[in-house]
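Figure 2 data, in text form.
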Amino acid sequence: MTYSFKKTNSSDFLIQYKEPLEILWSKDSIDKHFDNKKSINIEMSLDSNFIGVLIGHYLYQSSDLDEFEILHIAILPKFRNRGFALNLMKELEKLLNINKKSLKIFLEVSSSNKFAIKLYEKLGYKAYNERKNYYRSKSINAPNTQDAILFAKSLNAIK
């Protein structure tokens, strides 16, 4: 098994896979994100087959500090729970860390997504806040709302 990463600014693959990846954005929102010059989007493939994606963008950039927000990380269902998300997150950190300046990465996750929370904690992300009743569910099998947990991680902190 050989997996690879590709930085991309084409929204086509994400639109094609948005349902199995459970991405709820509209086509217009996806296109706008990919048109943003501050976005970084990483496609992950396994033996030339698409398996997942990480999408995000810079919130702030200066000569000594960058702030980046992960908007979505998703792996196709048949590849989940096999360590691919961990490798995708590590690839992002490696990519963002090439200039060696101080970097802060932000993300949020549903409090019910225990697998993702465990992954982020394993990678050194720290919960710093919670948004009560942030996510609204349309499913009759899920609670009406779920809390969001906000995480952050600092690399190369300014000394």
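Caption note: Helices lie at 12-17, 27-35, 84-96, 114-122.
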